[in-house]
Amino acid sequence: MQSDLPHSISPTAPWDAADPFGIAASCVRRRLKINAGEEPVVGVILGSGLGAAAGRLLASGGRSISYDDIPGMPSPLISGHSGRFVYGRISGLPVAMLQGRVHFYEGHSSAAVAFGTRLLHALHVKTAVITNAAGGIRTGFQPGDLMLIKDHLRPVASHAELHPPLKDSCMSLIRPELQSGTRPGGSLLLWHEDLRRQLRQIDTPLKVHEGVYAMMPGPNYETPAEIRMLRGLGADAVGMSTVPEALVAASLGMRVLGVSCITNIAAGLSAATLSHTEVTETAAAIERQFGDWLGKAVSILGADSSAVA
Asked: Out of 97, 264, 267, 283, which one is annotated catalytic?
């Protein structure tokens, strides 16, 4: 029988059900020597094959801790997800990067999938940058392009059985201001429009689009028929993650920027055979350009986050 607790919690492990994320945050602060006032202002979740950005942060003086050493933190099993929490500075701003994530299709509950996001919130992160590797649906998208997410679809709810019953603590997900996507002052939280506007100024050799991201349950790739369905519904790219983390981040008051790295053309739209190897190879091919773009993005968002109350 599946537990709602992250899989890395053993029956004999110390566990404070009232505040597991505070315990995890305290561990990270202690192990990475993060002092008061030095908490990260931007948190980045790195998708399949995109972990080189965290390696760059480490190379510039950052510090890391394995997910296995963080109480309650689930560890990924999929290649391209190293399972490290990395802390460092970009342009002088403190930043946290989650080098890898867990997915519903690995057998995890919604509590486990959202654990890293809630850990970032417990560390006082104000802006969440959630990245993924995605298949391109829109005509003109090519492997190596980026897409800033402006909206999302969840057309297949086959992972719903992994969600625990709705509890009072989850009711913030359906607050009126989140249903409309706004907070007092009119600032968008989910797929933050102002954040996307700020990043349009970045000079990069990468093609950067904006579009709608569709989340499918995985682990299998979509069929050509499913891609035709998604295209008809208005999706521009498709993947197997990101939306649950984004919804939780927004419910906690964090501003959310979503970024898809187009690593392949979706099924039925090209003659290529889809594979996870293609995904990671495409991500590796643009790791320098993506790292440059992400560094500039974090600098912009971090400076802006510092002004957020």
From this structure: 264
Q: Among the options 133, 249, 250, 267, which is catalytic?
A: 133
Residue 147 designated active-site: no
48 a catalytic residue: yes
Annotated active-site residue 221? The verdict is no
105 as an active site residue: the answer is yes
Of 96, 240, 246, 267, catalytic: 240
Q: What is the mean pLDDT of residues 207-224?
A: 93
Whether residue 227 lies inside any domain: the answer is yes
> Which band of pLDDT confidence, cut at 50, 70 and 90, is reported for residue 14?
very low
> How many domains in the chain?
1
Say which of 25, 64, 81, 213 is annotated catalytic.
Answer: 81
Q: Is 81 one of the catalytic residues?
A: yes
What does the pLDDT look like over 55-89, one tens digit per residue?
999 999 999 999 999 999 998 887 667 799 999 99
User: Is 165 domain-assigned?
Assistant: no
Rounded distance between C-alpha atoms, residue 131 and residue 11, angstroms: 32
Q: From CA 296, how far away is CA 309, in angstroms rounded?
A: 22
The C-alpha atoms of residue 85 and residue 63 are separated, in whole angstroms, by 8
Answer yes or no: pTM beyond 0.70.
Answer: yes
Given the residues 241, 251, 260, 305, select the one marked as catalytic: 241
For residue 74, is the peptide bond before it cis, meaning its omega torsion is within 30 degrees of 0? Answer: no
Burial of residue 85, with CB atoms counted within 10 A of its CB: 0-12 exposed, 13-18 middle, 19 or more buried? buried
276 is catalytic: yes
User: Containing domain of residue 45, as a range?
Assistant: 21-160+173-305
Q: Could you tell me if residue 5 is inside a domain?
A: no
CATH of the domain at 56: 3.40.50.1580
